[in-house]
Design a protein that fits this description.
This protein is an alpha+beta fold. The C terminus is likely disordered. The protein folds into 2 domains: 173 residues; 30 residues, no CATH class. 71% of the residues lie in helices and 13% in strands.
């Protein structure tokens, strides 16, 4: 039984490591996406104040991946310490992480679909040059590759984290550990006390310890 629990914790820790890696990759890919957006806006009609304002609010968006990283670290600590309390804490933050990243992925998918017609909508009321339109389409094609990679990484991290939460819950709720204690166990042995030709049998108890 102890070996089974140990293997269970090893698998849980491994899955937490996978979620951690997904969080790091998510941060890197999202950072690259923001860089391509910045470069495009600086070299297009969107340069100037609009680009500055855009990156003032969105330059730290890459930290979204930390929503995977933090719970994964908690799970690794709980698995290493074999602590049910820490693993229960991991389950709580992990569920919050699933809700946040699930919503983020849905919004990202919608934005990716809408973004495929961004060039046509952006220049709808203007008369763009052929070079501007071609640059925009090149940018959108590059963004599509990054977006697909980001969606896939997020989906992998989401499902692996869900599996890890289930495994942590199984360990926290169903595993049992033997704690040393004392049990009073009656036995069949008796003492004979003779009084005026009357024999009285009295049961006795022995004390045994378990560990």
């Amino acid at each position: 039984m102890a070996r089974t629990h140990k293997n269970h914790l090893i698998v849980t820790a491994f899955l937490c490591g996978v979620v951690l890696a997904c969080g790091v990759v998510y941060c890197v890919v999202l950072s690259e996406i923001l860089k391509t957006v910045e470069n495009y806006m600086k070299n297009s009609r969107y340069n100037g104040i609009s680009a500055t304002t855009f990156f003032y609010y969105l330059k730290y968006m890459w930290t979204t991946g930390l929503v995977y990283v933090f719970p994964a670290l908690v799970g690794l600590i709980g698995s290493g310490l074999k602590s049910k309390g820490v693993l229960i804490g991991y389950m709580i933050v992990g569920i919050l992480s699933l809700l946040i990243m699930g919503g983020v992925n849905i919004m990202h998918i919608i934005a990716t679909i809408i973004g495929q017609s961004a060039c046509e909508w952006s220049y709808y009321f203007n008369t763009p040059s052929s070079i501007e339109l071609e640059n925009c389409r090149t940018y959108v094609a590059l963004q599509l590759k990054y977006s697909i990679a980001l969606i896939v990484v997020n989906a992998i991290g989401w499902f692996v984290e869900l599996t890890t939460i289930i495994m942590a819950g199984i360990y926290a709720c169903c595993s049992s550990e033997t704690t040393p204690g004392v049990i009073f166990q009656p036995v069949a042995a008796t003492h004979h006390i003779e009084m005026s030709s009357v024999t009285i049998d009295t049961p006795t108890a022995t004390v045994s310890t378990i560990s």
